[in-house]
Design brief:
alpha/beta
Length: 407
């Protein structure tokens, strides 16, 4: 079934906002529009529930129940148990907390593997473990394509490696990495796996239970929700790592790795993400039961629409001799996050695109290691155009025409 784009766009107030009319939004990888269901829940929380949650009076009981609902429903969509999912201020901060836990867990001489394809949030915190005597091994991308080859990973794995960190897809290369294959290789070598899903989750929440990693991270504010980092921590690993929260929360898995007090309203509002996915599923006659099955249906619906819109854009840029497309030119192999290395500063081109009603970004996007590895000057940066399932064909056509004008 084709995605009903008119129904989708009615769920996002930004598309009815007068000040945004005539503007085509192509910086979704930096933060998506927020669906109305999240906005409604956030408003309700601030007007009706803005009290300390989990007390016996009614407003407090409802406040706590809405926070629990968010965790339970998103976990169910992702195929994990509700206590295996937690919220934090951002994915970057969640990763720093995890790195601190591993700092206490690992022994000098043991090793971790990171990539140079990652956003800095899933490589910088881990690399700092070298200060504690932990060996940090780099799984390097192909300098021409940006591809992460699992064969290169195999050469790095041995009985010293305790953790492998990599992205589900890069925020500049865009290629979707084979998480299940990489996880199986790592587990077979005795290593745990941490996947940065920030650049993948907006294109359909994955079934982490099926994919198999021990940790999966993504950002709600890039997935139509509030500014929260969402973290899946599987129970086996969570029980082994040292508690990073208050001592009295040590027995509660979803509190062990969130040392700061949660943002009550934003956590509660995150249930609106599940409301939105349910609305998509029901409107498109998806499965009536089973949260994971319903989530998979919405995932596939989103991806099919994105792939259909993405291929014409890739076709329009891949053969140009005045730019370099980073990552695959086949839409089915990548997310709709398209980075273009130009012959001049990318931010200047993004500013020119704004004159044509195109909202896009230019820079290194915290992926300077990946750009350097591919021979791109991070100071000049790349022009990045990114979209999600709520983007329509007319906007992609408008982008292609605008690129022809400014390049």
């Amino acid at each position: 079934m084709a995605l009903d784009i008119d129904f989708v766009r009615r769920q996002f107030p930004a598309f009815q906002e007068p000040s945004l009319q005539g503007q085509a939004f192509f910086e979704n990888a930096g933060g998506s529009y927020t669906c109305g269901q999240v906005i409604d829940r956030l408003t309700r929380y601030y007007t009706q529930r803005k009290v300390q949650p989990y007390a016996p009076y009614e407003a407090s009981r409802l406040a706590g129940a809405e926070m629990d609902e968010a965790r339970q429903r998103i976990a169910a969509l992702m195929g994990v148990e509700s206590d295996e999912l937690s919220f934090g201020p951002s994915t970057t901060q969640n990763t720093y907390v995890l790195a601190q836990a591993f700092r206490q867990f690992l022994q000098p001489g043991e090793a971790i593997i990171v990539t140079n394809q990652d956003h800095e949030a899933n490589t910088g915190p881990w690399r700092r473990l070298a200060d504690e005597g932990i060996e940090v091994r780099e799984w390097e991308i192909d300098p021409q394509t940006g591809h992460l080859d699992p064969i290169r990973l195999e050469a790095l794995l041995d009985d010293k490696v305790r953790l492998v960190c990599f992205p589900h897809c890069s925020n500049v290369v865009g290629e979707i990495n084979p998480v299940t294959e990489i996880t199986a290789l790592s587990h077979a070598a005795g290593a745990f796996v941490c996947v940065d899903g920030v650049s993948y989750a907006p294109h359909g929440l994955p079934n982490v239970g099926d994919l198999g990693p021990d940790i999966y991270l993504f950002s709600a504010y890039k997935t139509f929700g509030p500014h929260q980092g969402v973290m899946v921590m599987r129970r086996e690993l969570g029980a082994l790592l040292p508690n990073q929260g208050h001592f009295f929360n040590a027995d509660c898995l979803y509190k062990r790795f969130t040392p700061a007090g949660p943002d009550h309203a934003q956590v509660a509002a995150s249930a609106g993400m599940a409301d939105y996915f349910d609305a998509l599923c029901d409107h498109h006659s998806g499965p009536s039961e089973g949260a994971t099955a319903r989530g998979a249906f919405v995932h596939d619906l989103m991806r099919a629409h994105e792939v259909e819109l993405l291929q014409p854009l890739l076709d329009a840029v891949k053969e140009r001799n005045d730019l370099r497309l980073l990552g695959p030119s086949e839409a089915a192999r990548r997310a709709p996050t398209v980075a273009l290395a130009l012959n001049r500063p990318a931010l200047e081109v993004a500013a020119e695109l704004a004159n044509f009603g195109i909202m896009a970004g230019g820079g290194d996007f915290y992926a300077g290691r990946a750009l350097k590895a591919m021979g791109v000057d991070p100071d000049q940066g790349v022009l990045r155009v990114s979209f999600t399932h709520y983007t329509c064909k007319g906007e992609v056509d408008k982008l292609i025409n605008a690129l022809d004008q400014v390049l």
